[in-house]
Amino acid sequence: MGENARVSLQTKLPLPMSHPHAAQLQTLMAQANVSDVIQLAAYSRVAARQIYRLQAGLIHSIPVEAVVKLAQYFDQSVDEFLALFLPTGIQPLEFTPKTTQATGIDPAELEALQTEGDRLRAQLETQAINHAEEIEQLQHHLQVQQQEYTDKIDHLQQQLTDQAEAQAQQEETLKAEYARLETQLDSQQAQNEQRWQQEALDILEAWLLQWSAAAKAAQDNAQFPARTLVALTQPFEQLLASWDVTPIGTVGEIVDYDPQEHQLVKNHGDVGPGDAVVIQNAGYRQGDRLLHRAKVIHQEEPKGTEN
User: Fold this and answer.
1) Which of 82, 105, 130, 283 is the most exposed place for a label (fewest CB within 10 A)?
2) pTM value > 0.85
3) Under DSSP, is residue 221 helix (H, G, I), strand (E, B) or coil?
4) 204-to-105, 232, 234, 235, 240 alpha-carbon distances in Å
5) Are residues 261 and 122 in the same domain?
6) 114 CB neighbour count, 10 Å cutoff
7) Which residue from 61, 55, 52, 70 is spatially nearest to 24, judged by alpha carbons?
């Protein structure tokens, strides 16, 4: 992975505090109002990889030019900057022939120790760089996953919002349709009632025109023929027929007693189903619905008025 590729993958997360000198670098960045490594790399013109080496305690492996740029950016001298990040444990020791002779250390052995120290230091540097890259990759992976989860949550929230808006709109549409149908039904009921009244008036028109005169003549003349009044009731029979109202029997008709259609007048004996009875008052039904049962008396008894 190249330098630019690693920088492009860097997230905006704070510096990992587990690095040896992360706290010092974090303090300097806070004082300079810098939030992350990307900003620091851009402002100081130092590669982000070198900054990771700095926070890992590997300042000795950073080019001198980068150290100078960082020190200048943080407004410090190079010595002050090195004092913050250079571990005392790896600072070079001054050796003199006198010291070597005093301690009795063989120069060849000392050189071998220094070589081994350089090897170990290089190994540690490689491991630190590898760990920094692994952390960088993990941070990028976590950032990608976090973004994916955020996108999914946003998508689900948008779906829920769209569904809620669609449902609210559908409810409003249904309410408007219900109000329209209710208004239409009320209007139809009013129109049907008006049409029914008009139809009834059309059927009763002959009675309306003649009844008042016939009633006055009957009141003024005791000999006024009843047949004339009966003739005036035909419009009522026509109106009942238009409503599918039909009579049950006719007055004086002899029929077999059926308790479903006939009602025996009180004090006129006992009869059973199938016995002959005489209809005293006609009954009525509308279609299949019984309105009134016909009133009947026993055939053997004289017809009279109901008690």
Assistant:
1) 130
2) no
3) coil
4) 143, 10, 9, 5, 11
5) no
6) 13
7) 55
